[in-house]
Structure formats: structure tokens, C-alpha cells
């Protein structure tokens, strides 16, 4: 990330909770510590936590023709069926987050409108109705984890 930041002459915003994972400190890294960080009137970082306590998503309010966009990396991951997303503690080992953590993530992102969601890889896109996909996926995960699936 340092090379990209240098190449594009931009800062790197990381949540304070992820400071311990930074193996290459650099002046371009800006640590922030609240639950949200407003970058512009249009762009907000939201700490969702998850498999890292400082995991952050970016909400772009005017993206998708004013309907909103959420950039998630692997904090919320788009799965093969692009109408659903996943919430994992360990992706390599396929271990989901606990139901209470998924509930907290769901409730934290709920107030942010977004039509589209971009995950951490090029093909990882929920092209429409992404807010619903996140809420429905979280509810499905919680039900499964609490053994309430029918």
C-alpha cells in the first residue's frame, strides 16, 4: 500500500485498531480512532470490525448515480451468487464470524444507503440492491449460526 500511495501521491487511512498489524510504518499512513472518519462531505470511512477489529469500509454517498456505493474489501465479501455477501472470521479456513458480531456489522452499516457494493476483487460486485443484499445476508447468517434455519 505504501508503493501505491507514493505512486498516486495520496494518504493511507487506517483505523487505530489496526496499528499493530502495520509492518512498514510510513508518514503517508494516517491513523484515525472514532467509529467513522469523514474524508469529504461525500465520503465516509466506517469501522465495521470483523476479522480485524479495525476493518473499515468506505461509503461514497453520491456514487451509483447518487444512490450510494460501499467499498468493502473483504470486510463484507461478495460471494459467487452476486445477490449475497459473506462475513468471515477466517476466509482461508471458512470460519464465520459469531452471530453477535454479524448483527453489530449489519446494524452499523444499516443507516448508510448504497445501491452498489464493490468487494476486494474485480469481479466481486453487487451491482444493484446491495444494501438489501447485506442486510438479508447478515440475517441469513445469524439465523444459521443460531440454528434457526428451516
List keywords for this structure.
single chain; Metallo-beta-lactamase, Chain A; alpha+beta; 6-stranded mixed sheet; two-stranded parallel ribbon; 2 domains; globular; 12 strands; 150 residues
Brief account:
The chain has 150 residues and is α+β, with helices and mostly antiparallel strands.
What string gives the helices and strands in order? HEEEEEHEEEEEHEEH
Task: Give the total of beta strands.
Answer: 12
Helix percent reads 25-40%
Low-pLDDT ranges: none
Tell the overall outline: globular
- Computed structural class: alpha+beta
Beta-strand fraction estimate = 25-35%
Strand order of the largest sheet: 3-4-5-6-11-12
What's the total helix number?
A: 4
Radius of gyration: 16 Å
CATH superfamily of the largest domain: Ribonuclease Z/Hydroxyacylglutathione hydrolase-like
Can you name the CATH architecture of the largest domain? 4-Layer Sandwich
Overall description:
- With 150 residues, the protein is an alpha+beta fold.
- It has 2 domains: 33 residues, no CATH class; 112 residues, Ribonuclease Z/Hydroxyacylglutathione hydrolase-like (Metallo-beta-lactamase, Chain A, 4-Layer Sandwich).
- Helices cover 25% and strands 27% of the residues.
- Strands 3-4-5-6-11-12 form a 6-stranded mixed β-sheet, with helices on one face. A two-stranded parallel ribbon has the order 1-2. A two-stranded antiparallel ribbon has the order 7-8.
- Helix 3 packs antiparallel against helix 4.
- The radius of gyration is 16 Å and the shape is globular.
Amino acid at each position: 500500500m505504501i508503493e501505491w500511495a507514493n505512486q498516486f501521491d495520496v494518504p493511507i487511512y487506517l483505523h487505530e485498531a489496526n496499528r499493530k498489524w502495520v509492518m512498514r510504518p510510513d508518514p503517508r499512513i494516517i491513523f484515525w480512532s472514532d467509529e467513522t472518519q469523514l474524508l469529504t462531505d461525500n465520503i465516509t470511512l466506517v469501522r465495521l470490525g470483523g476479522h480485524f477489529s479495525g476493518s473499515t469500509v468506505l461509503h461514497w454517498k453520491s456514487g451509483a448515480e447518487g444512490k450510494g456505493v460501499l467499498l468493502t474489501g473483504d470486510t463484507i465479501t461478495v460471494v459467487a451468487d452476486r445477490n449475497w455477501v459473506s462475513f468471515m472470521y477466517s476466509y482461508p479456513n471458512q470460519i464465520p464470524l459469531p452471530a453477535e458480531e454479524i448483527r453489530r456489522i449489519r446494524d452499523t452499516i444499516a443507516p448508510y444507503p448504497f445501491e452498489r457494493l464493490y468487494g476486494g476483487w474485480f469481479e466481486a460486485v453487487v451491482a444493484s440492491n446491495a444494501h438489501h443484499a447485506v442486510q438479508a445476508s447478515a440475517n441469513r447468517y445469524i439465523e444459521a449460526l443460531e440454528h434457526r434455519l428451516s
